Amino acid sequence: MDTALDRRHLLRLALGTALCLPAFGGIAQAGEATAFDFSFDSLEGGAMPLAQWRGKALLVVNTASMCGFTPQYTALEKVWTTYKDRGLVVVGVPSNDFGGQEPGKAAEIKEFCETTFGIDFPLAAKVDVIGPSAHPFYRWAAEVLGKGRVPKWNFHKYLVGRDGKLINAFPSATEPDGDTVTTAIEAALRT
Description:
Strand 1 and strand 2 form a beta hairpin. By secondary structure, the chain is of the alpha+beta class. It has a single domain, classed as Glutaredoxin. It is globular, with a radius of gyration of 18 Å.
């Protein structure tokens, strides 16, 4: 076989592979990526790939310990307890982007969540959720749903279907255990 042809074939294969590598922590094309292409660091340390919950629905929520919406932790824990056996994973993503309301270190956030609200759903390490330094999941969500659906404050919620595709976004004031969110969760769990 022609060596130049082999090199061109390998180059094309390498370029094709590179285009499919995680540009945002996922696949280069936002429409092709799913939530399962992304990974956070766990609040306790180590990787927390969303792929570990492939086939489950996800409710991904940017959280903060010193926010007027912080009491929503109670409702998030209720949603987690109610739906986890049916295939929903609540993922808390601490962020200090809004009003500096999550200033603590990982150990402080963990202790606060566990002792104040009894949280036992997965928590990611603190990340940015808006702007150019936003975590890749949040940049992807902004591309898929549009800039108007990015978090405007703490406790913004993204619902992800069992197939890893974004279903909806809910603003901070929308209660996680209210009809709007639970109806959407119920529908996501039926598919």
